[in-house]
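Weekend entry, working from home. Most of the wet-lab plans are on hold until the incubator is repaired, so I used the time to fold the two sequences that have been sitting in the queue since the last round of cloning. Logging both here for the record. First:
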Amino acid sequence: MRINKMLNFKTSQGGYQMYEENFIQAIHNKTKIRLTFASKEDGRNLTRLCAPMDFGPSRRAHNKDDRFHLWDYESDEKNHTLSLLPNQIVDMEFLTDNFEPSEFVTWNTSWFIDRNWGQYS
């Protein structure tokens, strides 16, 4: 039986600065996140195991505010990417389990956050 160690960071007064800093550190460390977010499609909170991909504006959305971009390992949809605005984040648990970018990166990248992911940087 495998036990995941985690660091749980909660923000106060609706702020997301600590989430952002720890999210970016998880990108650099290539560590997974247990994410709880308000799903607009489902009308309720969902919790998913994710890999942090990037933090910055969406290239597709009209709203260009910064958002959290994640790979959803547990998605029931064909599209496994999540792009969530800070106000959609309910909780982030920063796990010690690692991921490999080769598990999901199949495109030419142009990340907002610089990282050392080798050929996936």
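Second, folded right after the first finished:
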Amino acid sequence: MGCSSDSGDGGASTASGEIDRDATLRVGIDSVPMTFDPIQNPGNQGNYTLPELYDQLVQLDENFQPEAMLATKWEYNADGTELTMTLRDDAVFNTDGAPVNADAVKASMERAKTDKASLVAPLLANLTSVTAVDDTTVKFSFAGPAFSFVSDLANDPRLSSVVDPAHMDNLATDPAGSGPYTLGDATQSKVVFNRVADHWDETSGLAKTIELSGIPDQNSRFNAVKAGQLDVTYINTGQFDDAKQLTDSGKFQSFYEPQVQTFGLRVNGTPGSPMSDPAVREAISVGIDRTQFCSTAFPDMSTPTRQLVAPVDPAFDKSLDDEASLAAQTDKTTSLLADAGESDLDLTFLSFATMVTIAEVPQQQLADAGVTVKIEQQATYPAVIGAWLTGKYDVSTFAFAVGDASSIVRQNIETDPISGGVPDYAKAAYDKANTTPPGAERDAAFKELNKVLTEQPVNIPLCNVGLGLIGSSQVTGLENVRYLGYAPPFETRRLGLTK
């Protein structure tokens, strides 16, 4: 899914040699998950672990399009209100060897929709029923067109992970899936996965054991790889020059996927926040110099943008990112805020502790327009999510991976309880895009929706950002890594070490 390199300048090399099937792969992430129940994961950390423990119905391919996994093929009816999937017949649950069949898919999806603890239930509001036609055929029925449902499944393992119906009671601590690994030890700082004896996916389970270590500080993670204490981690902003030096030494290798995620400001659109006013959101958007922001916050790994969709999406419109629109328009910000009665605007900005310096860039830029931004921080992803859901903050940051335009709008605007939902001025364009079958007309409809949400934003995109991994020269499978819908998580089920 990108460029793998042992020289730091692109290419297509990766570790070669005999795979060490007895190896322990040590992976550094920001923090370990709090639960192993797919539907109770807030996103980020769970997505590091779900693909190892659970097989999904579909996954993302190297072009970020849905690809077969448990489902081998699928087909919509003419109006998109029914989806029929055919399942593979050789997958079994690790708990008791029971087959992963249509009944299991039905039970998993119904639980995701109806369980009171489900965090993905809003994404299934359109789903009305799931029918097990036979052991390997399952039919999904929807209240309205659901042409993006397969993309939703591919982008979000929380939705598409299939769990064992006979062992659903304690999934938070005792996961019951059919993935290539089972859960070993789990603490607040480390999670251990053990490979199962036999699994249908021969590209997975290369390492006997995977250890995920939670290390909040990005430099500590990077240095742990450099010192040989970890085998692989992801490259953060400010680390690409150091990563190149390591790969140039021949002892390390890197892997880079350009423009795999969109980074920007998440907005509180609920009553009580000034950001609920579309004019205020527009004022904040035009008050930020995106070119300066990207070069400061994500040097050498980003391009400025105003658009929710990535350049590879058919809905992307290059003309919307002209040089003038990417620059700060301070006078326009001042005028819009005055018209909205917010000339002395104060905003609270929720930031990760490790990203405060990034938050300070728009803080300084908006100060030129008389906007005061107060930054508050939380140390971990779960803490940030919990604080954001209180509704007390006006803006935070977001990052999500490339995906179907409809999925992006639905997950980041429509079903986000703090966004305020799809605004009235975008509903007609959104409804048209969602009800149009795949093809040129649908692409055109989403291009129009993208234009509406660019000119009058809800959440405020700032950059298309690449993601990179750094690993020892023994790591194999970097070119097969799938990034997931809540960037920057990457799945590790296809990574291993050579002897």
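Plan for Monday: verify the second prediction. The CA atoms of residues 241 and 300 lie 9 Å apart.
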